[in-house]
Write a structure and sequence with these properties.
The chain is 42% helix and 15% strand. The chain is an alpha/beta fold. It has one domain: 3-Layer(aba) Sandwich (Undecaprenyl pyrophosphate synthetase), CATH 3.40.1180.10. A six-stranded parallel sheet has the order 3-4-2-1-5-6, sandwiched between helices. The relative contact order is 0.19.
């Protein structure tokens, strides 16, 4: 089966999973963390090089304060409890998103995760935290505009490749496959630039129910497709 180099996942449906079971939303988020742990192991086992997960969007701040607090707490627990294991297993942690305005304790944990695992090569785990695709594009445009203003860059030299070099993902390959759980059929501001030619697979299960079999089913759908990138002959498929 063809294995994508980079899989990105919109981990959706924690709250609805909990509601269906008569549980508080935080129970769904906790179950979602367990699903993430298993997915990291599965990605490593399958030889996937890059796994990007949509952990917390820049729009999630509009949720009730108690839920946001619970999510921040789960992030802290995940890093403190799982970071050593991720490091032992050769997982490199990367963070994308806007860190300006985050609390010092959160920023410190994110910095620690990146610094400790910087030399690992088995799997790159990219965590999109306080991330919004439109915001990322705006921030990149501001960087380029400032470089033009300082005379470091000619405006006519700006190309898609140069623009991409100013995104948070400047050194990360574009995702081959984007998976979204919960049955919703949209990207929700997740990697809009990078996912321009990604294959999209929408799974009906809620994120806490995502398991190895779910990943394999998504990969089977991916393997059955031809990736032509606007051309006639399929390319970019490595078995």
């Amino acid at each position: 089966m063809t294995t994508p180099e980079h899989v990105a996942i919109i981990m959706d449906g924690n709250g609805r999973w909990a509601k269906a079971r008569g549980l508080p939303r935080v129970a769904g988020h906790r179950a979602g963390v367990e699903a993430l742990r298993e997915t990291v192991r599965v990605a490593s086992d399958l030889g996937i090089s890059w796994l990007t997960v949509y952990a917390f969007s820049s729009e999630n701040w509009s949720r009730p304060a108690a839920e946001v607090s619970d999510l921040m707490g789960l992030l802290k627990i995940f890093i403190r409890r799982d970071l050593a294991e991720l490091h032992r297993n050769g997982v490199r942690v990367r963070i994308i998103g806007d860190r300006a305005g985050l609390s010092p304790d959160i920023n410190g944990l994110l910095d620690e995760a990146e610094a400790l695992t910087a030399g690992n090569r088995i799997l790159n785990l990219v965590v999109a935290f306080n991330y919004g695709g439109r915001d990322e594009i705006v921030r990149a445009a501001r960087k380029i505009a400032e470089a033009v203003r300082r005379g470091e860059l000619a405006s006519e030299a700006v190309s898609p490749e140069l623009f991409a070099a100013h995104l948070d993902t400047f050194d990360i390959p574009d995702p081959d496959l984007v998976i979204r759980t919960s049955g919703e059929l949209r990207l929700s501001n997740f990697l809009p630039w990078q996912a321009a030619y990604s294959e999209l697979v929408f799974m009906p299960c809620y994120w806490p129910d995502f398991r190895r079999d779910t990943m394999l089913e998504a990969l089977e759908q991916y393997a059955a497709r031809e990736r032509r990138f606007g051309g006639v002959v399929a390319r970019g498929m490595a078995s």
